[in-house]
Write a structure and sequence with these properties.
The structure holds two protein chains of two kinds. Helix content of chain A is about 50%, strand content about 5%. In chain A, β8, α23 and β9 form a beta-alpha-beta unit. Chain A is of the alpha/beta class. Chain A folds into three domains: about 100 residues, Alpha-helical ferredoxin (Fumarate Reductase Iron-sulfur Protein, Chain B, domain 2, Orthogonal Bundle); about 140 residues; about 120 residues, AF0625-like (Rossmann fold, 3-Layer(aba) Sandwich). By secondary structure, chain B is α+β, with helices and mostly antiparallel strands. Chain B has five domains: about 90 residues, 2-Layer Sandwich (Uridine Diphospho-n-acetylenolpyruvylglucosamine Reductase, domain 2); about 120 residues, Uridine Diphospho-n-acetylenolpyruvylglucosamine Reductase, domain 3 (2-Layer Sandwich), CATH 3.30.465.10; about 110 residues, Alpha-Beta Plaits (2-Layer Sandwich), CATH 3.30.70; about 90 residues, 2-Layer Sandwich (Alpha-Beta Plaits), CATH 3.30.70; about 35 residues, no CATH class. In chain B, about 35% of the residues lie in helices and about 20% in strands. A seven-stranded antiparallel β-sheet of chain B has the order 15-12-14-13-17-18-16, with helices on both faces. A five-stranded antiparallel β-sheet of chain B has the order 5-6-10-8-9. A four-stranded mixed β-sheet of chain B has the order 1-2-4-3. In chain B, a hairpin with a 5-residue loop joins β8 and β9. The longest helix of chain B has 18 residues. Classes of the chains: A alpha/beta, B alpha+beta.
């Protein structure tokens, strides 16, 4: 546990909560369930009571700590900036550790396990296992994110591709000699579910003549294990990624998945050591592309007469870092896009990683509010910057019976660029790298 | 501990899922924004007026105290279950029943969040002005029970000025209607005004009829820096004398400016000893002139800088200065006693000087900011509760602040209410006959002392002199 803070380590932050109630205005889970125990100040009171031994670490505590999207909205608007999502993560690690299980997810599974329910789910899960997860490695974040027995039948999932990203994009694409090398951390969902997003990213780099490296040994960022309070798995995955990205002089590591950005960015930085060295290089690809002058280049493309109406959803893991303008700037610069804002663009989609698995009903309620905003915007496409949000938004849209489709900002950007295939460039040796 | 039969009856009224006695929930409904904690015995979440009426009757039959609660964001302890018993949460009654654009009135349930209501009426070009700082999460029922205020009240008045009528469950469980949807109405006592600000001691509000205004076309925000608090205070009087009533007239003293200096990009030079944030609203064509008039009026009063916001984004930047105060205060000391005295607006400078003397006498920092336009000053007494004796010092300082406000013809509380936090000080402001008059009303309507006991008055029995 050495690299991760304990709940006790958060004592000072817990003390900063003045119970003002401002978090009630932010919390999507609270808006659905309307119970104090679901909102940040309630969770903080509960965590404090556990530390003070006024409440036991029982089933109720496990449930309360599971009722969090980890979206960080409460933290953003808290007058005293209490980091509730970090406190909840520490509480989940505490649960796993005290219960002697590897993860909070396992404890929660035990709490939620009801024979009848499991029976039904297991049957559905069995089919999913065969269809969906066959190609997915055991250590993939997708397995942690969607524990098979709990996937609700009504949930629409993307197809897991039989042709993952690394079979579509070469490991290395050469670029301008004066540009520093960018490493691309794809993450599990772009690798297996949305490889077209990774392809789009590669095409954009090619367009800008920037060198790009897709380290073949990279794995899951560890965020699902973080959310599951599974510190040991986080450590193992982080060490593997540090090794996967070693060996080349890289200027920056870009992500096209907001969740992975937090997974290998924020969380690795907090872990210190060689993880922090890697974490410090992580940058969201939209921000990176805006810095490279892509907006200006897109604006020079000839405008199209018939443009498609597109709105944007803010992924929590970008919004909480203040990355809201960059994806919008790219969309607004596109020749084929008419950009519109939607109401509640900054509200969490309701996925919350494992949250939606264990609390699918609440997740769907939160998603349906999102769908209302999408419908009112009249957009034909909802663009976002996180495959997790893409999955949840499409599920919400399907349930609302809307014709809107979900895509990644990068897909729209790549669509506007001249079509071009990838000739595989020879992979330079370490000595060749700038 | 409540007898199992009481829990059973509560479950029969609202359904099993809507009653809890779980220790975790008791903890979560034990507190409010005052950070005090009193554990209830049960929490109940009724869905409608009939259920609330049945719960009140049950509480009377069983002699169990009942504590109505909205968002639990009050600053005086109004929602705290100070004597155990049952917390009754109104957040499930959250429907905007009607927005009547012909008559400019709305009918709402008490659990509607204030900002959501404001957004709903603004969509159709109407306006509900009261704007307590908690408006993003506090409920209209709670706002009415405490008679909440806010920055805009200098021009538009407080919550009670917008409540035309109510549906109320009385302390014995009857359902009554007060007032109505008409602008005029003089039949019988004005029970609406009696209920608003009665802090849940005389009934539980289950529906509100609210007066609306046309939405002002535009607004303009000015931030003015003064070299002295006197200059700023004179500016307030001068603006009002100049026949301009701004929408808001917020001030911050030197201690507050020092707190927020790190939190803002705006240049707040050392010579700025006071800040006024002035906002005017109305017809877009007239705003420019009005703003200029304000600047002309205050110019001779030691102005050391002005910022005029011309866009909503610029206005937001100016308001950020005011909004960053609350968080910045923690840098002074961890614990805050947030009082909200109100004095006649011309006496604000005297009040600030009194507070300054008190702060120096007790050696504890006191930070003042608030609604200068209506004399409502937020006096924040900052202490470190972990240090021995600091809490006692704070209490003595609070008492002197209250005494100071009363000497100047003011009141202990402009908008937070009495709750349990100010109950001990009530005799300082109200004479014994007035307290007895109020308690006679309470005793007559709530003979079992069921509804929110221990609030406003320390003891239920009337002391007849």
């Amino acid at each position: 546990m050495g690299r991760h803070k304990t709940l006790e380590d958060f004592r000072a932050e817990i003390d900063k909560c003045v119970k003002c109630g401002a978090c009630q205005a932010q919390c999507a889970v609270y808006k659905s369930l309307r119970r104090e125990s679901t909102v940040a100040r309630g969770k903080i009171a509960i965590a404090e009571a556990l530390l003070d031994k006024e409440l036991p670490l029982g089933e109720r505590f496990v449930l309360d700590m599971s009722q969090c999207l980890l979206c960080g909205s409460c933290h953003d608007k808290c007058p005293n900036l209490v980091p509730t999502e970090d406190i909840v993560l520490a509480a989940r690690r505490e649960i796993a550790q005290r219960q002697g299980l590897s993860s909070f997810g396992k404890v929660l599974t035990g709490v939620l396990k009801r024979p009848k329910l499991m029976d039904v789910l297991a049957k559905a899960g069995g089919r999913l296992e065969k269809l969906a997860f066959r190609k997915i490695p055991d250590h993939s974040g997708l397995r942690l994110r969607f524990p098979v027995p709990f996937i609700a039948r009504e949930r629409s999932l993307p197809e897991f591709t039989t042709h993952p990203l690394r079979e579509r994009v070469p490991e290395y694409l050469a670029g301008r000699a004066d540009a520093s090398l960018t490493a691309f951390f794809s993450g599990c969902m772009i690798q297996y579910s949305y490889p077209q997003v990774g392809e789009a990213l590669a095409r954009i780099f090619r367009f800008l003549d920037l060198p790009l490296w897709l380290p073949p040994q990279q794995g899951c960022c560890g965020l699902p294990a973080q959310a599951a309070g599974d510190a040991a798995t986080v450590d193992a995955l982080a060490d593997a990624n540090v090794a996967a990205f070693a060996g080349r002089e890289i200027g920056q590591v870009v992500t096209a998945c907001a969740s992975c950005n937090a997974g290998i960015g924020k969380h690795y930085r907090e872990m210190g050591g060689s993880c922090a060295v890697l974490g410090n290089k992580v940058e969201d690809v939209h921000r990176f592309l805006v810095r490279q002058g892509l907006v200006e280049k897109l604006q020079q493309l000839p405008r199209q007469q018939e443009r498609v109406r597109v709105t944007y959803h803010d992924p929590c893991h970008l919004r909480t870092q203040g990355i809201t303008a960059e994806p919008r700037a790219l969309l607004k610069a596109l020749p084929q896009v008419e950009f519109v804002e939607m109401e509640g663009a900054d509200r969490c989609c309701g996925l919350g990683g494992t949250f939606s698995v264990y609390h699918y009903d609440t997740s769907r309620q939160i998603g349906s509010r999102k769908a209302d905003g999408i419908a009112a915007s009249g957009a034909a496409l909802v663009a976002t910057a996180c495959p997790g949000c893409m999955l949840q938004l499409q599920d919400s849209i399907n349930h609302a019976g809307l014709a809107t489709r979900v895509c990644h900002v990068l897909e729209l950007v790549a669509q506007a660029l001249p079509a071009e295939g990838f000739e595989s460039d020879p992979i330079p040796t370490k000595e060749d790298c700038p | 501990m409540l007898a199992p039969r009481i829990i059973r009856q509560l479950e029969e009224i609202v359904g099993k899922e809507q009653v809890t006695c779980d220790p975790t929930d008791m903890l979560c409904y034990s507190y409010d924004a005052t950070q005090q904690s009193f554990l209830p015995d049960a929490v109940v979440f009724p869905a409608d007026t009939a259920q609330i009426s049945a719960i009140v009757r049950l509480a009377n039959r069983e002699q169990v105290p009942l504590f109505p609660r909205g968002a639990g964001s009050g600053f005086s302890g109004g929602a705290l279950p100070t004597r155990g018993g049952i917390v009754l949460v109104t957040t499930r009654l959250d429907r905007i029943v009607e927005i009547d654009q012909d008559n400019l009135v709305a009918r709402v349930q008490p659990g509607v969040v204030t900002e959501q209501f404001q957004q709903a009426v603004e969509k159709v070009g109407l306006f509900y002005p009261p704007d307590p700082a908690s408006l993003k999460f506090s409920t209209l029922g709670g706002n009415a029970a405490e008679c909440a205020g806010g920055p805009r009240c200098v021009k538009y008045g407080v919550t009670k000025d917008y409540i035309l009528g109510l549906e109320v469950v009385t302390p014995q469980g009857d359902i009554i209607r007060t007032g109505g949807a008409t602008m005029k109405g003089v039949v019988g006592y004005d029970l609406t005004k009696l209920m608003v600000g009665s802090e849940g001691t005389l009934g539980i509000i289950t529906e509100l009829i609210i007066k609306l205004l046309p939405l002002p076309e535009a607004k303009k925000t000015l931030l003015i820096l003064f070299d002295s608090i006197d200059g700023a205070a004179q500016a307030v009087s001068a603006i009002i004398r100049g026949k301009i009533i701004p929408t808001t007239l917020e001030f911050m003293d030197a201690a507050t400016i020092a707190c927020v200096r790190q939190a803002t990009q705006l240049d707040l030079p050392e010579e700025a000893q006071a800040v006024l944030i002035v906002e005017v609203d109305g017809d877009a064509a007239l705003l420019e002139r009005q703003a200029q008039r304000v600047l002309d009026i205050v110019a001779p009063l030691g102005v050391v800088g002005t910022r005029v916001a011309n866009t909503p984004a610029e206005s937001e930047e100016l308001w950020k200065v005011r909004r960053s105060v609350s968080a910045s205060l923690r840098n002074v000391n961890p614990d805050k006693f947030n009082e909200d005295i109100c004095v006649p607006r011309s006496r604000v400078p005297e009040m600030i000087r009194k507070v300054d003397v008190i702060a120096r006498k007790y050696g504890i920092p006191i930070v003042n900011f608030g609604h200068a336009g209506d004399g409502n000053i937020h006096v924040n007494i900052m202490v470190d509760g972990r240090q021995e004796g600091q809490l006692d010092l704070a209490k003595q300082a609070i008492e002197e602040v209250f005494a100071g406000a009363l000497e100047l013809g003011g009141t202990m509380s402009g908008e937070h209410g009495v709750g349990n936090t100010k109950a001990p000080y009530i005799p300082m402001e109200l004479d014994p006959a007035a307290v007895a008059y109020m308690q006679t009303i309470k005793r007559a309507l709530d003979p079992n002392n069921i509804l929110n006991p221990g609030k406003i008055f320390l003891e239920a029995p009337v002391q007849v002199s």
